[in-house]
Each structure stands twice: as C-alpha cells, then as structure tokens.
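This part of the workshop introduces the protein records we will be handling. A learned vocabulary of local backbone shapes supplies the integers on the structure line. Getting from the letters to the tokens is the skill we practise here. As an example, a complete record with its sequence and its structure tokens follows.
=====
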Amino acid sequence: MVLKFIFLYILVSILLGLYFSKRTKTADDFIRAGRNLPFFIIFAMVFATWFGAETVLGISATFLEEGLIGLASDPFGAAACLIIFGLFFAKKLYSMNLLTLGDFFRKKYNRHIELIISVLIIISYLGWISAQITALGLVFSVLSNDGISNNNGILLSATIVLGYTVVGGMWSIAVTTFLQMVVIVIGLTFALAETTSLAGGIASVISRANIDGKLLFLPAIDSFEFLFWIAAFLTMALGSIPQQDVFQRANAAQSAGIASIATTFGGLFYLIFASVPLVLAYTAFIIDPTETSKLMEIDSQLVLPNLILNHTSIWLQIIFFGSLISVILSTASGTLLAPSVLFTQNVIQYFGKKLEKNQLVLATRLTLFVFITIVCLYSISSNDTIHTMVENAYRVTLAGAFVPLVAGLFWKRANSSGAMLAILLGITSWLALEILELDLPIEPQIIGLLFSIIGMVLGSLSIPKLGLKR
C-alpha cells in the first residue's frame, strides 16, 4: 500500500514538472530558468538539493556508528559550503552573467583551464548522483520487501529522475523542488513527533544519545583523529564550492542580492533541519535495540526505514517515505542537470563545435542520458555507503578547482600560468598519495589543496608572461 502511494506521489511530481516545462523556451530557460526565480524558490532549491539521500539515510547511519564526530563533512561541512558561497561568492559570480561555472574559468584564464576544470567538476558529480540513485533503489527495495532488487531499484530510480529532468530543465526542477521542500519539512516533522513519543520524548532521546557519547562534536585536538576531522570538513566545505549545482541555483535568482541571501539562509536552515534524521535514527536504539543491532551488522542505512515501517502508522509511513522520495528526487534532478550542462557548454564547444541555442538544449538532453547510464553502472558496481560516495565526490574539486576559483575572484595577480600550475600540482600530488596509500596524518586531498595554493602563487608571480593564450 505504501509503495502504491509513493508511485502516485512520483507521478504527481513528474506531471507537475511536465506542466511547468512549458516555460522552457530557450537554453537560458532550460539552464537557469531565465534568471526569474524569487527568494523563496532559490531558498527551497538550495535546501532541498543539499538535503539529499545522504542527509536522511547516510549521515543518520554514520551518526549511529560514530556519533557527531563522524559528521564533519555532512552536515557541518555541507552547511558551511552554502553559507560561505552565499556570503562571498554568489554576488561576484552572479554579476558576471555566466551560463555555467566553466565560463568563469574561460573568462578569467583561458579555454584550456576552462576545459580541465570543467572535466574535474563533471567527474566529481559521479559519486554525488550515484548516492541519490543508490538511496532511491534502497527505498524501493525496502518498501517492496525485496520484491524490487537493489539493482532494479537503481535502474527504476534513474529512469524516474531522468524523466522530468530531461523535459523541463531548471523550470521543472525549481517548481517541483519547492513542493518537495514542503513535503520534506512536514513529513520529517511528523515522523519526529511520533517516533520520539514512542521513545519517551525528544529530550529523553537526546539525553540517551549524550550518555552514549554520540553528541561529542570534536575529537581531541592533539590527536590524529582531529586532523582527519578537519580534512573531512574542509573537503565538503571548500571542495563543493566550485560546483555547477550550487552556482546554478544562485545564478537562477532574480538578483544578486537574492542569490546571496537565499543561498546563505538555505545553508543555515539545512544545518538546523539536518538534526532531525539523526534524532529519528537514534530513537530506533531505544524502541527496538535488538532489531537495530541486527540491522547495524547488515547495513546501518536500513535502520531508519525499518523503524518507520515497523513502528509507525500507515499514514506516517506514506508521509515519511514520500518525504524521502522528495529528498532524493530534488537532489538527483538538480545534480544530474549540472554536469550535463558543463559538458555541452564547456567541453563540446572547446573542441570547436559551436552550438546554437536550440542545439545546446538538445545536446544537454542527450548528455543527460549518457551521464545517467554511467551513474547507474557505478552505483550497481560500487560497495561504498551513501555517505562515503558523497564524501569522495569533492576530493578532486578541492585539489584542482577550488584555488583557481578563489584566486580568480579575489586576487588580481592570478593568471593562467598560476591556474595551470595550481591544477597540475594539486591533482598530481593528490592522485599520487591516493595511489600510494601512505599512512599519513594528513588526508591526500588536503595535501593536494596545499600544493594547489603553492602552484597558484608561484605560477602567477614567477612566470606571468608564460600564460597560455585564451
């Protein structure tokens, strides 16, 4: 019964997206909704896109195993990214009237830098989108009592996400995401109220989590664990700033002010509301400790869905899983469009194929099919958890894209020589350390970031005349 209502909800979301796809007349409409979106839509898009599968299933599972210490990257790093982007990056990038983030690197440096960084950003999306598709497959498997296998669930999920993304672009995403944000907030709030009442109240759940040591925020400052915590935080907080989906949402706003404020408040609301799945998951330990322990041994990501299925009313199950579907669809659709746009705008056109406006939309839609196919193959073959998929997604952009973006916006002497050297030193040092698997107290992507900074400074100051032609 729950599964039937979920499919009905998905159908309504698709039909809504199809209806508003009528507003998509040009490539500008498809990619950034003609820059016509008001504050509340941008706010909803930022929150709902970031509030993905890893927030409900991924970080709640990590919290059960490691406590708050294990959540440095998400929600703390993720929220910090949105707040930093809103305060310091949104207005500057908005004022440049760019179609994609890749366009910035072409205008500031040259087309070679544009190509390299666009490819790096596209690669980083593989883990992020795979996490959403994997989670949706998991939901279908749980609700069907394994009638739909995980792999078949992944394929079904990919088809659904592709369906309303490929038709309406940003207009469809914007409207459906606003609806999904409302469903997310209402659904998880109701779920929190009912489950915590079964566990003695929310204060009791929080007190129990504190007694069990789950609310310890930071490891000891003089320990290696603290360095790893900082690395995880910075990877998400900084590595996800040079991303097309974050930029795309701010860039669709009606003004630079709205882009900045809506993104910042979206980040703050995300940080606050991300605590709800954590409390929800921990009630399982109080309500049914034996079953929860068994699930933890199998897959901790199953704890929260099984809590709802086994200990709540049918109507709450429908609301909760409807919320979960909303979470995944809003994130997956937006993040699927982002790399596809980068590929058509900044990779294809680099090789001399100038696309007209109508050709750009068609090429982007075709790219969506190709990219979702790659995502499915990765999701089916990977054994990583949802949280790990998301954490790994931003290592490449932290090491190779963050410094060229920051220097290009805030340092007048930054040039193409510095950007190229920053990319080369950052990516090669990071990759080398990942391959060698050395037991170092500092994570490879942080070393890559440090080398990237060195490369930018040395290249820009020492060889300014050797910059590649635009």
Remarks:
- Residues 411-470 form one domain.
- Residues 465-470 have pLDDT under 50 and may be disordered.
- The radius of gyration is 22 Å.
- The chain has two domains: 2-387, 411-470.
